[in-house]
Amino acid sequence: MAGSTLKIKIESGSFEEWTRDLKADDLNRLEKSIGLEMAEIARNHIEEHKTPEGQQMKPWSEKYEKRVRNSGDRRDILMGPERRLHHSISYMITNEGIYYGSNMVYAAVHQWGWKEKNVPARPYLGMGPEEKQGIEDILEDFTVRLARV
After folding, report:
1. What CA–CA distances, in Å, run from 16 to 21, 55, 93?
2. 101 with 5: CB under 8 angstroms?
3. What DSSP character marks residue 76?
4. Dihedrals phi, psi of 139, to nearest 5 degrees
5. Given this model, what pLDDT does residue 6 score?
6. What pLDDT score was predicted for residue 104?
7. Closest CA to 127 of 38, 49, 55, 59
8. What pLDDT is stored for residue 1 in this prediction?
9. Is 0.85 surpassed by the pTM of this model?
10. Which residues have C-beta within 8 Å of that of residue 24, sequence separation ≥ 6?
11. Which of 95, 102, 98, 93 is nearest to 43 (CA)?
């Protein structure tokens, strides 16, 4: 996946041992659930214009704001009505883990900024404590369901 991605690694010897014993279908369902949740978290950050830490994203410069305002239907094209950045968020499951992010070239600029062009970072990838708890809840629900089988 090109553009901007973030990898979350669950480091637990017991978790790794546990996943080795899972059927491929079970593990795939778990990975899909986590990938979908991670992508949704990133979309929420974009929609709410908030960083993973819960801070408001930096506003546009006055110069850029004026240019966008004067362009008519291009108003907030990445995060506004067309929501291109929002719609580009996806996840990918590999042997190394679950990756999520966007393949848009601008996604990396949005996440980390562009010093040479004086564009500040407006990060949307990452998780705060509540969001991490959501991933933990998925893992817990999954283990409870497996224990019932």
Report:
1. 9, 34, 16
2. yes
3. T
4. -60, -45
5. 52
6. 86
7. 38
8. 45
9. no
10. none
11. 102
Report how far residue 34's alpha carbon sits from residue 39's, in angstroms, rounded to the nearest whole number: 9
Closest C-alpha among 36, 44, 20 to residue 93: 36
Amino acid, res. 41:
I
Using CA atoms, how far residue 41 sits from 37, 49, 61, 81, 132, in Å, is 6, 12, 26, 19, 10
* Model pLDDT, residue 39: 93
- Please state, in angstroms and rounded to a whole number, the distance separating the CA atoms of residues 68 and 83: 15
The tokens describing 62, both together, are 């006055």
| Spatial distance between the Cα atoms of 46 and 18, rounded to a whole number of angstroms | 34
Containing H/E element for 99?
A: strand 98-102
Judge contact between 3 and 108, C-beta under 8 A: yes
Task: Give the model's pLDDT for residue 56.
Answer: 92
Enter the tokens of residue 117: 């062009």
> Please, what are the averages of pLDDT over each run of 10 residues along the chain (149 residues)?
51 58 76 92 89 89 75 55 80 86 87 91 88 86 75
The amino acid that residue 55 corresponds to is: Q
